[in-house]
Amino acid sequence: MGFRLNIKGQLNSIHLAEAKALWPLFEAVVNSIQSIEDSPNKTCGKIEIYAQREDTGEIRLDDGKPDKDEPLEKFESFTIADNGLGFNTKNYESFQTAYSMHKISKGCKGIGRFLWLKAFDSVEIKSVFAENGKFYNRTFSFTADGIEPEDDNLKETESQENCTQITLKNFMPRYRNAAPVELNVVAKKIIEHCLLFFVTGNCPEIVLRDDQKTINLNRYFDEKIKDSICQDEFSVKEKQFKIYHLHFPSGVTNHELHLSANMQDVSAVDLKKHIPDLQKKITPENGEMPFYYVGYITSPYLDSIVNTTRTEFEFDEHHGQTSLFGVSEEDILSTAVEFVKAYLSDDLKNIDAQKRDEIDRFVAEERPTYRYMLHKRPNVYDEIPANLKPEALELELHKQLQKWEREIKKQSVELEEAAKEAVKKEDASYKKVFETYWESITEISKTSLAEYVTRRKTLLKLLEDALTVQKNGLFKKEEVIHSLICPMQHTSNDVQFEEMNLWVIDERLAYHKFLASDKTLKSMPLISSESCKEPDIAVFDHAFAYSDSDEPFNSVTIIEFKKPDNDNKNPINQVGEYVDKIRQGLKKKLNGQSFNVTEGTVFRCYIICDLTDKMRTHCKNSSLLVTPDNLGYSGYNQSRHSYIEVISYEKLLGDAKKRNEIFFEKLFGPMPGKMSHMPEK
What we know:
alpha+beta; Heat Shock Protein 90; 4 domains; 9-stranded mixed sheet; 8-stranded mixed sheet; 26 strands; 22% strand
């Protein structure tokens, strides 16, 4: 008994990704092209492809044609007919032989037909061919069980024309669902896969149709693609390569670089991974149609390392090996990309110029914090993709800043090592490293400061809006203003530092031991109290240097907000009650440290409110002195050892603007006009 091949076992060894669901169809089309090349019909070859859609069983009441808005049915089978040489004796014997050497000169591996059965249940083959002066008809089926019938499948026929028809039947659901349903997409993918046959002029006429539409692939190529073809040659480690440059006005969705073998597409690379500016269609300035760039690389070297199913290349590095003289995929792509850049140089220059203008405009108007980085690191422009939306652009700028910071940290390690050597002798390289490091640190510090100032400017604008009379004649709620200064219902343990804007009231409040916003005294972890009183904001602080002994808080700050038009309560008395309740609280231990409030603890009370006549009376009755600008009151309550400051909303906003005005001017330029004021009542 001769050697036999288990087809099911063979299929198990073949990998076909869902993304390559149409490759069995491509394999059949290429077989037809090669069959025509070997036939007397070489100059008048024709391939017809019929794509049959699945029958859903739905009954149409009109002319039987689907409505244009209805979803297209998936493809169930494909029939490929050609007038090539056909399944004569030699070709049929080759078909029966796995890994046949019959068409090895064309790069055939003798296994491509098994790819059909990877995605289809069965294949029906009918072939009329001429042999020994007669015409014969050979009909058989090909399944995972083998060829049926294997021997008695040949009959003489009266037909006088070569015609081979291969039907790929019952598209398996896994691949059927992954395949495109639009006929024009299938057409363009066939062109992509077989493009080199079109480019070299060795492609017969190919027509694709379904029950509704017919597409001539050659006509599409001639009208849309042919005129853009340009060719370059290059070498990598003495291996020779060709690259074909083409414009695709439609049919593809990315700029791609394809690696080909034996005139067929094998793998594709998204070019935006190598050229960030290639994000969308290129629109030439000369008014030509927008296009996607597609390049095809060919080489005898690629022909020699393609796998048996021609679905990928067997580069050494894919198998964990590194050859000193071998050519890697990265070697090929890196060289090819430079030729792509040269081919698209004019288009890329225009894209880059537009991108730089967009980045500069965004930074100047929205995020000046990145201005220093762009000035010091102009290569950042090259690393940011073109045509980004503002949100994505800011993210990319932030990534670049983080990258710069990582480089600076690395430099600091190098600086330390260089400093050790500099102790022994004068080292010029150390000085150079230090100067570069220090300059970068300075610029990053400027960037961080600019970001911080920008946040302050934005916060003051939000606060100004909140303090402006709304269209309904009312102010925004007290809670809105409170939340801008500090998030409500939180403590400093669960609020990020950047979210606390106590600097609006007093710069000294930026750093503290503990803060509670809109929390009861009972719930505060640093003091022991049974009071359910809720100061708007309570800030506890102590000396920076303290021993392991129990240390009292050296200051407690209470902040109380009153709605701008709220005139019902006396907030001075209210904060006084908070002071009394906190002083009455016992010391409490937290994380091994004990804290308490003593008679020596200073209380600072800020009341943020609207200075109505009634409020001014409360201030005078409490012996508070009016501020020189007449927009606030301040004083000292000796019995409670507390400083009290009453600040109008107008004064709060105005003073914060004045303190930060110099920073705003340095970063954004002089502010037009004077500071805006609260509307008069």
